[in-house]
Specification:
Structural class of chain A: alpha/beta
Largest interface: A-D, 59 and 63 residues
Number of helices of chain C: 11
Shape of chain C: globular
Chains: A alpha/beta (396), B alpha/beta (289), C mainly alpha (306), D mainly alpha (344)
Strand content of chain A: 15-25%
Order of helices and strands of chain C: HHHHEEEHHHHEHHH
Number of domains of chain C: 1
Distance between the termini of chain C: 56 Å
Strand order of the largest sheet of chain A: 7-6-8-9-10-14-15
Oligomer: heterotetramer
Radius of gyration of chain C: 19 Å
Shape of chain A: elongated
Chain lengths: 396, 289, 306, 344
Amino acid sequence: MRLRALLTLHACVAVLACEKKVESPAPAPAPAAPQAPTAAAPSAKDVILLGEIGSLTGAQATFGVSTKQGVEMAVSEANASGGIKGRKVAVQVYDDQGKPEEAANAATRLIAQDHVAVILGEVASTNSLAMAPKAQSAHVPMISPSSTNPKVTEVGDYIFRVCFIDPFQGFVMAKFAHENLKVSKAAVLKDQKSDYSQGLTDVFTRKFTEMGGTIVGVEAYAQGDTDFRAQLTAIKKAKPDAIYIPGYYTDVGIIARQASELGLKATLLGGDGWESDKLFELGGKAVEGSYYTNHYSPEDPAPQVQQFIASYKKMFGAVPDSLAALGYDAARVAMDGMKRASEPTGASLRDALAQTKDFPGAAGTISLDGARNAVKPAVVLQVQGGKTKFVTTISP
Amino acid sequence: MSDVLLKADRASIQFGGLRALTDFSLEIRQGDLRGLIGPNGAGKTTAFNVLTGVYRPTSGDVYVGARRVNGKQPHQINRLGLARTFQNIRLFKALTALDNVRVACLSDTAPLFPVRDAAGLGGRVAAACNNYYDWWRAMLLTPGFQREEADIERRASELLEVMGLSHRRDEHARNLPYGEQRRLEIARALGTRPKVLLLDEPAAGMNTREKAELMVLIRQLRDRFGLGILVIEHDMKLVMGICEHITVLDHGETIATGDPQAVRADRKVIEAYLGDSYLETHPASGALA
Amino acid sequence: MADFVQHLINGLAAGTIYALVALGYTMVYGVLQLINFAHGDVMMVGTFMGYAVAKSLKLDLHPSLWGVLLVFGVSMGGCAVIGFLIERFAYRPLREKPRLTALITAIGISFLLSYGFQLDFGFLPGASPHAFPEIIEPAEWLPLFGGEVVIRNTQVISFLIALLLMVGLQYLVFRTRFGTAMRAVSFDHRVAGLMGIPTDRIIAGTFMLGSALAAGAGILYAIKDTAVQPLMGLYVGLKAFVAAVIGGIGHVPGAVAGALLLGLVEEFVVGYTASTWRDAVAFGFLIIVLLVRPQGLFGRMTPEKV
Amino acid sequence: MANAGPASGSWLKAALPLLVAVPLLAALQPLVSTMPFALYISSIVGVNIILAVSLNIVNGMTGQFSIGHAGFMAVGAYAAGLFSLRVKELAISGLPPMLSDQLLLVAALLVGGAVAAVFGFMVGLPSLRLRGDYLAIVTLGFGEIIRVVVQNTDVLGRALGLSGVPQRSTFFMVWLWVFAVVLVARRVANSSHGRSLWAIREDEIAAEAMGVNTTAYKVRAFVISAFFAGVAGGLFAHFVPILNPGSFTWVKSMEVVVMIVAGGLGSTTGAVLAAVVLTLLPEALRTLFNQFGVGGSSVDQVRMPVYGLLLVVLMLGRPQGLFGTTEVWDVLPRWMARMKKRLA
C-alpha cells in the first residue's frame, strides 16, 4: 500500500508539472526572482505589458470593475497616441475574488508568467499587502490606485500609490466636521470586518479629540449585517451631533435608513467607501445631507478632469466614480514613468516613478513623497437630491 | 460451585409510564447455559439492554463479577467481560468479516503509563496519553505495534474458523447469508474475550438443520471458552434442548424460573403462551413443545 | 430607561423574524430529523420574489393593501412550490439513506441558492444588496417617553403575525388530522406508512408549510431591515437554527421562545457591551446551551432503539 | 492492503515510505523552486490535500460531519504565524541558515498543529457526545467565533491581517507533510484502531457493545484531524504574505467538504485526487479563459454555485463519490480489466 501511496504522490507532482507547461507561454522558465528583473523575458520585447489585479467578483465588485475600466481607458489613450517609445501597451487583468491569497497568486502569475513591467492594484489594502512582497522581491514596481492603508507602501521601495492615505482622509473629515460643521460631539460606527474602516476610525477619533471635540461612542458592525438598531440605539443615547461611518456603501445606506427610523437627527459623515450610486438607492431620503471625503469630484472644473469624464462617458456611457479616476491615474503615472525611464522595467522604472512630481491626474495633482505616497488634496462631497455635490477641497 | 459472573438483582426499568421490566433477577456462573423466553414484547431484549448498559435500570442492580455496573457505559461493561449479539443483526456491514472481528479483538493495549486512579487529573492525563499512544504507534507502525496487529489478526481468523466462517474472511459482512451473519455476530462477541455471552435469538431465521448445528456449537463454545451463556430464543425445542435452566418473562415480569421440565409444566407459562382457553380444553397440561 | 425599552423592542423585533424562520426548521426537523440547511436560502429566494412583485407594482409609490397581500401571496406560494420541489427531488430519494447524505444535499442546495443568486447574469440580482420597497408605509406607533422610544407599525404587525402563525401552527399540529399524521410520521415514518398514513404527502406538506412560513418571514425581514441580498438567508438561517436548538429542536413554542431569547440576548450584548463581539454571541450561546442542556430548553432526549 | 505485517515487525517496514519520499521530494525541490508560479500552485494543492485528507478522517472514516475545518486551519495559521514572527530573527547556531529556517518552520508547524488540536478537543468533546448533525452547526459556529476573535485582537492584525510572517515554506516541506498526512490516514485506517472508527460510522451502538469507547474515539479522530488542519494552516501562513480572516471563512470549509464528498467519504486517495483536481481546475480554466480573452473572473463567479450543485448531484447520483470507501488501487485493476474487455 505504501508504494502505491507513493505512486499517487508521483501522479500529483506529474499533474503539477504538465499544468505548468500548459500555463507558461514563455519557453524558458523565468530565472529565480530576486536578482534578474523580468525584463529579460521575450514577451516584453514588442509590447509593454501592464498587470492589473482587482476583485471583479464579490460584494465590492463595483470597485474592481471601475478601476479596471479606468486602466483600460488610460491604456487605449496611450496606444492611440503612439504608445510608449513606439511600443504598444497592453494590460493583463486578474480577478482575486477579494481574497488576499488569490491576490498574491495573481501577482506571482503576472510576474513569473506574464512578465509584466508593472503591477497596478489592489483596491483593498489587505490584498495590496498580499501582493506587495511578491512585487518587491521580484523587483517589479507596483502602483496601488486606491489602497489607503499606510502599511502598503512601507513594504518596500518598489511599492507606490496614487491616492492619499487613511491618516490624511481621517484628518480631513475630522477637520471638516470640527471647523466647517462645528461638530463638538461625534460618534463612530465602524465596520469590524474591514481594515479600511478600522484605519479611518483610529485616525478620525485621534484627530477629532486633538482638535478639541469629544468622541461620545464607538460602535461596530460587520459587513453584511442588516440590523444596526442595537448599535444605533446605543449611539442615540450618547446624543452626538454627527456620526462618522467609515464603511462601504452596501452597509451605509441601510444604516442611514435605520438611523432616521430611530429618530437620530445627527449628521452622517463618511469616507471614500461611500462612493457608489447604490448608496442613494439603499439610503434613499435618509442619506440626504450627509458628507463624505473622496478623491475627486466630477464637478471639479479642472480641464484634465472634465476631459477625463467626457472620454470616459464616451467609452463606458457613465460618469466615472473616484475608483475609475484612480485606476486611470495609476496607469498613466506608470506609463509616464516608463516614458522617463531608460528601461521601462525594474530599477530604472522604480527610480523614474519615485521622481513623479505635479503629475496632472484626474483625481488631483500627484506628487509622490519619500514614502512613495501621493501628496494630494481631498474633496468633501455632500449628498443632495440623489447625487453628490462638491463642497470643498482640503489640502494637506 | 464457581463464583457468580453476572448477577441481576430485582432490576426494573420504566419508559414514561410503561414498566418494561420488573424485578428481573438472575445469576450466571461459569459453565451455565441458561434460557430467557417469553412471548413477543415480554421484555426479553429489554432485559439484555439493561444487563449490557444500553439502558440504566430505574431500580435494582446489575453486577458483572463483583462490580456493580448501573449507569456504566456499554463499552465499559463489555470490558468487564460481558458480550452480546443483537436480535436485529447489527454487524459493521461495510467491513469484511475479518475486520468485524478485529474491531472486537482490539483489547486495551499495554499502556504507556500505568494508570492507578483515572479519577485524578494526573490519571486523566496519563489515560489520555495512553489513548493517543496507541495511535502514535499505529502511525509510526512500530515493530511492537506490527506484532500486536499480527496477533489480533491471528486471533480474529481463529474465531472465524471456530464459527466456520474462514471461507468468508475477506467478504463484506453485508454480503453474507443470514445464518452466517448470525454466526459472525457470535464470533465478533467472542472477540472481546467475554466471561458471559448473551445471545439474542441466535437461531432466528435458521432452518432446522442449521438450528441443530447451532445447538451443538453453543455447547462447544461454552466448554471451549469456559463461558456462562444466556440465550433468548423463541424456539422452544432449541431452548428446552440446550438450557439447564430457564427464566420466563411476560409483560416484563418473571413468571417462572427452573429447569425445562418445571417450566414446561408451569400453568402461568402455558397461559402466557397459549392463553388460558387452552387449559380448559386440555386439562392434562404439560404438553408444550 | 428609554434606551432600555428601545433595545427591548429592537430585540423582540429581531427575535420575531428568527422565530418565523425557526418554526420552519423545527417542523421539518420534527418530521424528518433533518437539518434543512437550505431553509434560510429558500427564505431569501422568497424575499426576492416579493421584491420583484413589489417593484413591478411600484408599491412604494402607491401602496395598497391588495398589493401587499399579493406580495405575500406570491412569495409564500412560490416558496411553497420551491419547498415541494426540493423535498420531492432532493430529499425524498435519500430518505432511506444515512442521514448524512441528506444533510450534505441540504448544504449543497443552500450553497447553490445563496451563491447562485450572487451571479450577475440576466435576471439574477447580483451580490450587492437592493433596497426593499416600502410596501407598508412606515409610521411610528404609540411613541413612548415623549417620542424617545420608537415602535414601528411594521414591528407590531410582524410581531402579531408571528404570534398568529405560531398559535395556528400549534393548533395545526395538535388539533387537526394533518397534525396527528405529522406527529405520527415524526415518531416513525415507516410505521406511520404501514398505518395507512400518506407519509410522502404529509412530509411534502410540512416542507411546503415551512417554506411558505420562511417566505413570509423573509418579506417581514426585508421590510424591517429595508434591504434584500443573496446572503441574507445564510445568516438569518443559521441564527434561526441556533434559536430552534436552544428552544429544543422539534418543539414549536420552544422554537419561538428560543428565537425571542436569542434576539434579546444579541440586542443587549451589542447595546450594553462591546458590539464588536456581536457575531460570536449566537454561537457562543449555542455552545453553552449544548454543554449545559443538550436537548434544549424545552426538548426531551429520546433513547435510541436497539 | 497491508492489514497487518509479518509476525515479526521491523523498523524498515515502518520507515520505508519516508526513505523513498524524502529523496524524491529533495530531487524535485530545486526543479520546482525555479518556477515561482508552479511553486505557489503546488503549495496550494498540497495544503488542500492535507485539509481534505485530515477532514476525511472525521467525516469519512468516523461518519461524523464537521464543516468548520477552515476554523482549525485559521487557528493553526495564526499560531504558527505568530511563532515564526517571534523567532524571525533567530537562527539555530552551527547550522546553515537554510536548514535552521526549515527547522524553525517545522517547529512553527508543530505549534500550529498542537494549538489547533487543543481547540479541536474543546470543540469536539461537547458536540461529539451529541447526535451527529449538532457537530456540523457547532463547527460552523466555531469558525465564525474564530473570525470575530481575530478581528478583535491586535496581535493577530485584526481585519487588516497579520503580515510579515517569514515566507519559509518550500515545496519539500509542504509535500513532506502531504505525504505524512496520507501515510497517517492510511495507517490509522488499516489498524484495528482505525477499523473501530469505521465501526462507529457503521453502527455506533454495536461498536459500543463491542467495547469501543465511541466518544473517546470520535474525539480522538477529531483532534488528529484538527492537528493536520492546523499544520495546513501553518504552511499556508508561510507562503501567503498576509493572514486575513477572510481566507478562513466557511466557504473554505465547504471547499474541503466538497473535495472529500467528491472523492468519496472514507477514501484517502479519493480525497487526494479530488483536492488536486478541484484546486487545479479553476486555475486551468482561468488561464484558458484569459487566453481566449473571455473574462476569467466568470470562472470564480460560478465556482461556488457549481460546488453546491456538485454536492446535490453527487448525493443523488453517486453518494459514494468517486471511490466510495475504497482506494484507487482497489478500484483501478477492476476498472482496467473492464476497459480491456470493452476494447477486446
